Structures are given as structure tokens and as C-alpha cells.
Amino acid sequence: MPSALQIVALPLRGLTWLGGQGTRAVAAIAFVAVAMPPLGALLRPYVTEAIFLLLCISFMRVDLVALYGHLRRPGLIAAATAWTTIGVPLIVALAAYATGLTTSSPGLALALMLQGVASPMMAAPALAALMGLDATLVLVTLVTSTALVPFTASLFASLFLGGMLSISPATLGLKLLGILAASLLTATIIRRMFGTEAIQRHKQPIDGLNIIILLVFASAVMGDVATDFIANPLFMIVVALLAFAVYFTLLAVTTLIFLRVGTERALALGLMVSQRNLGLMLAATAGALPQATWSYFALTQFPIHLAPYLLMPIARRLTALTANFVSAPPKEGRVPQGASEVQQHDAPPRTGCR
């Protein structure tokens, strides 16, 4: 008969293996979720709980030393935070009105505007680390923008959403604030109980648990995708193309805007801005959204889960080039061609999420 230690060790090994699969596991989640509609129907009532656990894990793993280091140089953080919390929702909302989408398809317009006002995904730092990008920069910007989202989401909801939401903008802001505060408190208690070193030591099992919770969320959101494709294939194809277009537009525009601080950092910020936390919006609205909004949220999971895997070769190439620039000694005191000012002076260490 197996001992209690062996019984505990078996799932721990499974989580460790799953956590070691990295972006491959994240990409596979979208296809598993679509392939198992009954699982989605079973898990849909637990969307809010899944989002809460994802938030707890992300807050629990915050590298406070790296966080304080970046906050001492707030210029880039402030610019990135302003872009993702004010610039993105404003542009998305204006585009939805300018194209007439608010009239022709209010459900899709609502989906786009909720995507715009959402904060970046809490998994973004871990995905950036898996890709070899500056996860610390992503983490700090994520923390600052997430702290602001209850207020900015409420503001933009009152300006642009009108009667599209089933709850008032003030209620939306209060619910977002409550979810974020509760998850931060829970994460702080866990850190105090187990300690930062223990959390870092068990990085891969925690990654594995994170992937399982992501599967719960993706299954709940994507459970009806196959059925909807059969019922209305043209609409679903259009929505899928829109989801990919919005995702990669946010990625490309953000990368171009921040290119002057270095290509690697710009791509890290682009990844963060394009990975919007739609689950937080679902949790705040209790899922009381039109069917078209649900369809868009479901299909945008494909670019969210596939992009880190597809972009991995580019990220590795950028990381290798950056390492070569930093390691090569400059001739006659000159900076190697192509190295940015940020790379030359006091580059912060990578986060412990790797």
C-alpha cells in the first residue's frame, strides 16, 4: 500500500511535468477546451473562482525586490501604464463608434470595449518569462495598471458603454476592486505562511497548477465554440478574424510605440498589452453578457494562447542578440551598434517567474 508521502508526491510530479511544458501547454489549452464541450458546460459556473485563483497565484509570485527596483525609475512604467489603461480603451472605443459597430453589432462592440478597458492578464509576466523577455517590466506595469482598472473601467464604461452593460459603471468598478483586493489579501497571507523562498522553490508545480486553472477558465469560456461554428460558421469566422486582428494590432502598435527603449522590452510590453484580462470582466459582470460578446471572448482565447508559442522563436532571437550586445566589450568606449540606452545602463534583473 502506498504511503501518504507517495500519494502526495504523485500529483506533485504531475504538476511539475505540466509546469515544465511552458508555452506548449498554454497553446494546447485552447484546443482541449474546444474539443471537450461537456467539460465547458460543467466548469462554466466556476469562471469567477478560476479568475480569483489565477489572480492569487500571480500576486503570490510578485518579486518585491524587482518591483521596487523598477518603481525607482518610474518613467517607462508610467508611460506603459498610461498606454494600457487610457490609450488602448480610448482608441478601441472610438474605433467601435467610428466603424458603426455599436449599431450593427452591439454585442461585438461591447466585447471590444470590455477588452479595451480590461487590465493585462495576470499570467502575462509568466508568459514573458517563458519567452525570455523582461518579465519584471511586465510585472510592474501589470501591478500599476491593475490597481487603476477599477477606476478607469468605471470611467470608460460610463462614457462609452451606456446601457450595454447589465450593471452600472460604478458597480463594475466596485466589483473589480473587490475581486482584486480579495485576491491580493489571500496572496499576501499565503506568502506569509509559506515564505517567498518556498514559492520560488516550487515554481514548476505552481506553473502546472496555473495551467490547470487556465484550462478551467478556457473550457468554461470556449465550451460552445464548436457548436456555434456549426450553427453559424460565417459569423464565427468573422469574429475569429476580428479577435486575431485586434490581438496582433495591439501587439504590433505597442511594440512600435516603445521601440526606443529596446526591441526586447518593447516586445514584452506588446505581449502584455495584447493579453487582456477578459476573465476579470466576466467575473465582474457575473457573465451576464450577450451571446455575441461571449463568442468574441471565447475566440480571442486562440490568439491569447497561441501567440506566446508562435512568438517564441522571435523572442529567443532578440534575447540572444541582446546578450551579445551586452557581453561584447565596446571598442574605444563606444556603445555597440543597435544597443539601446536602457540596455547600456543599469538593466534590471529578470524576474523570478522564469
Automatic annotation (TrEMBL):
TM annotation in the entry: 51-69, 76-97, 109-130, 137-160, 172-190, 211-231, 237-259
Alphabetically ordered keywords of this record? Membrane, Transmembrane, Transmembrane helix
Does Cell membrane appear among the keywords? no
Q: Where is this region: Disordered?
A: 331-354
Kindly give the InterPro entries that the UniProt entry links to this protein: Na+/solute_symporter_sf
Protein's name in the database: BASS family bile acid:Na+ symporter
